[in-house]
Amino acid sequence: AERRPDEVNTLGACLYNLGRVAEESDSVAAAALYAESVSVRPNATVQARLDALGVPLTPDCEPRACVGPFEGEPQTALSAALGRHYASEDVDIADVGDGDAFVFRGAAPHKEAGIFLGLRREESWYACHLQPEVSDSYTFPESIRRRQWVAGGRPEIDFEVEEAWHGREDGVGNSMGDVVRYFIGWSEEAPVVYGGIRTLSFYYDGEWTDCGEGECLDGNDEVIPDWMCCDTLTPIENITRWNVRSIGSGRVRVERVEGEGRGPRVRTVDLTSLACSARD
Description:
This protein is α+β, with helices and mostly antiparallel strands.
């Protein structure tokens, strides 16, 4: 049945409002909602919002292929793989671990360093690019899990990587960062990167209170930083945690179980389309 004008206006407005909420955490979902709103009720404001996002309405959600196979010892094989990734013969590899799967850092001269998974398949090695190296420090997993997330075929691989930034201001150390769970699958017997889901976000800092009034002086009447005249340091701790569990072949439920965070408290994610999903 054909919708009445008031129904069209209400539906278009609802889709737009949902898009505004989704835009805080998932620009792809927001773009889809805006596009549907415009199709139901053409509106210049909604169209402008959609155009401003600059998100393709049919994004490429295909998993990213790992580079390989390369034969030889891990250092030799993975150097060859990173050379292919960076289009360079001169690469630097750090943190190469033991076993047939481990996370490591790799770089080429004058190019952005990256975080990779080194993965052995039979007698050959693959390098799977996870993300650019952007933080002060990383904590790599001590073990790599193999579990059946997608029915049939070879078990998928998942593991967590912590990225963190550290600083110091007014005599107080602070740190912030995330833990991301990465999922690696298979396509025609070769590994592919599905993507990552944030499972933890943290921020630790402190705030000085009970500070003296006026100019801050030491025992020799020398001016010192204001914070040195404060009596109390109040810790600041913000933690958001998400739980990830399987709800069927290739699908997971991501639920925020601690903290406020952004976006919906619960969402469903298709692992093979993680490239089109926000981390949280």
